[in-house]
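Subject: for your reference before the review

Hello V.,

The reviewers asked for a structural picture of the protein, and I figured it would be easier to keep everything in one thread rather than splitting it across files. Below is the amino acid sequence we used in the manuscript, unchanged from the supplementary table.
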Amino acid sequence: MSDRRTTRPPQKVWPARFMRVDWGVKTQLFDHLIRQQGYRVRYQRNVACPCVTWPQDGGTGQPELDCASCRGVGRLYDKSREVETKAVVVGVSQGKRVFQAEGQMDLGSVQATFLSDVRVDYWDRCNFPDILIPVQEVHKRAGLGALTLNFEAVEVLDAYTRDQTTEAQVRLVEGTDFTVNLTTGVITLLATAKTYADMRVAFRYNGYPWWYVKDLPNAYRGRMVKFGYPAERWVNMPTRTILQRGDLMGRNP
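And here is what came back from the structure prediction:
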């Protein structure tokens, strides 16, 4: 009887030079996967608003709450420099919602990994133009006039308020009680809504919320590589981020 151990083919030992990882090729494979499987993303970089008083100048590092440019957020976004890229999105967490006087805050977060050529920073923002997401907001305005939705809206589904006398729920009808400009997100209350104009108005609409970069677990994801290149160099890897939906950030711009 033959010994099976002697009939097995010998293990092939690869030279050490073939055991090295070409991180440049690995980055290309990551990017290829993101382009194939990722979501389309509209991405905007941020810059600090000049209204922020920096500590080195004796300030507190806080923005001016009545700033007309950033609306008290402290960050500016230039829509004209918006870029379209792709990202793989995982780990969606709905979390809980905390209602505030001027809207709601979604405590859920999303993990997104961007292409390696996108340099992400804190407070940058993005949205996903192929995915309509239902959004709810509560606004308070004194008297008739305009109010602005926080996000880009495609259609307003519902609008409700309360009767000042009976506190009964009242449904506002588009075209009769209010009008909507979907380009600017401005809702104008009409004369027929005068009875309820001093009350809070709740809206539900389908739109494209902005997601803000909350954390960068891999801010400097990459490594120094020399194999396969004339000189040692840094190779960026796709950046993993934690995004937070910015319901309380307001419409900026």
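For the response letter, the relevant points are probably these. The first strand starts at residue 39 and ends at 44. The radius of gyration is 26 Å.

Happy to draft the paragraph if you're swamped.

O.
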